[in-house]
Amino acid sequence: MLQFKRLIATLAFCLGLGTAHAADYEGPGLTADVFVVFQGTEQPMMRVYLGTKGSRLEPFNPAEDEPDLFIAQLPEGVQFEVFLDRRRAYRERMGEEQLATARGEYCAGFATKTRMGTKTVSGRKTEVWSCQDAADGPDQMVWWDPVLKAAIRKSRGGLVMELRNIKIGQPDPRLFDLPAGMRVIN
User: Fold this and answer.
1) In the prediction, which pLDDT does 20 show?
2) Does the CA dihedral 78-70-131-147 come out positive or negative?
3) Whole-number pLDDT of residue 22
4) Confidence class of residue 17 from pLDDT cuts 50, 70 and 90?
5) What CATH number corresponds to the domain at position 36?
6) What digits encode the pLDDT tens for the residues 34-60?
7) Nearest C-alpha neighbor of 132 from the set 113, 146, 116, 150
8) Are 29 and 51 in contact (CB under 8 A)?
9) Which domain holds residue 130?
10) What is the DSSP string of 6-42?
11) Number of structural domains in the chain
């Protein structure tokens, strides 16, 4: 359980958990599948929706006793872990670094960033950036799509995450609302 929470936290950090949001976002919104490569194993992890209202992560195979959905309402600075079977949603305020990352500051929390060139990833032309001197761990590489205003791939400490099957366009805004009947727990 703790290992899954750490992986989800890492995914949230690495993806920017909602690069698209109402306050500052200028990109077109997107829906994509997140693939993770760790210790030589590649697997699809979740579907991500990024739009003007926030972000939504849906794990393909949630672990038992783990959240079924992760919803970030970035203009409000809150995120939720949603347990559909229990009709509960755990609400958490987002910290400044999380919000900065979500707003597209893809090297938030790092001392420096260096542009390394360009590369096509998942059919998208990206800028490759190296983020150095993280206070909390290893350096990070980011493949940034300047049109979508989103990280298409991130690599940090042996964990690689990549968006695939990208569909451009605003997702249904209702995806970023909590499902009806949820009891919100802080």
Assistant:
1) 37
2) negative
3) 38
4) very low
5) 2.50.20.10
6) 999 998 899 999 999 998 888 999 999
7) 113
8) yes
9) 2-176
10) HHHHHHHHHHTS-S--TTT--S--EEEEEEEEETTEE
11) 1
* Res. 71: pLDDT tops 80: yes
pTM reported for the whole predicted model: 0.79
User: Is 184 contained in some domain?
Assistant: no
Average pLDDT in the chain: 82
Is residue 185 one of the residues assigned to a domain? no
Residue 114 lies in a domain: yes
Give the whole-angstrom CA distance, residue 88 versus residue 76.
19
Tokens representing 14? 């690495």
